[in-house]
Amino acid sequence: MKQHIYNVGVEWIGNNGEGTKTYKGYRRDHRIICDCKPEIQGSSDPNFRGDGSRYNPEELLVASLSSCHMLWYLHLCSVNHISVLNYCDTATGVMEESDNGSGQFVQVTLRPAVKVRVSDDRAKALTLHDEAHRYCFIARSVNFAVNVVAQIEEAAEVMPV
Fold first, then answer.
1. Between β-strands 103-110 and 145-148, what pairing exists: parallel, antiparallel or unpaired?
2. HEC states along the chain?
């Protein structure tokens, strides 16, 4: 079996001068770094004393599921001769927090809205979402439900980028 290794750096940048001496005395700000790529400004969710202007791990998990599904879907459409003209998703993740402060995701719903050419097989375009879901590396790796509620529209011409 082939393996792929992903190296990611995470650096905490929220020390206000006293480290984590007190729970309220430090920021949750951090940066995510990969070689030769722009850094991602991260923090915790504002519900957990984070900075709402930065990405939090929960948002990044939902984004990973959404983008993995999209990339598989685009590939499958390409090899099945379906021309995707536009693709956008409004994904939602649901995390439940326990009384002790721990939590876990219980589901994510992807809502891809796809435009294909009028001459393409609309039914096939819809069923390819099921196949993309089965192939998605990230969806195959999580222990909660990932639902896909797709809609397919037809367009007569190429949509602008």
1. parallel
2. CCCCCCCCEEEECCCCCCCCCCCCCCCCCEEEECCCCCCEEECCCHHHCCCCCCECHHHHHHHHHHHHHHHHHHHHHHHCCCCEEEEEECCEEEEEECCCCCEEEEEEEECEEEEEECCCCHHHHHHHHHHHHHHCCCHHHCCCEEEECCEEEEECCCCCC
Give dist(CA 77, CA 86) in Å, integer: 12
Where do we find the tokens 């995390």?
95
CA dist 90 and 114 (Å) reads 12
Look-up of token digits 């719903």: 109
pLDDT class of 155 with cuts at 50, 70, 90: confident
The domains of the chain are located at 9-48, 57-155
The pLDDT value recorded for residue 156 is 77
- CATH architecture of the domain with residue range 57-155: 2-Layer Sandwich (3.30)
Instruction: Give pLDDT, residue 159.
Output: 54
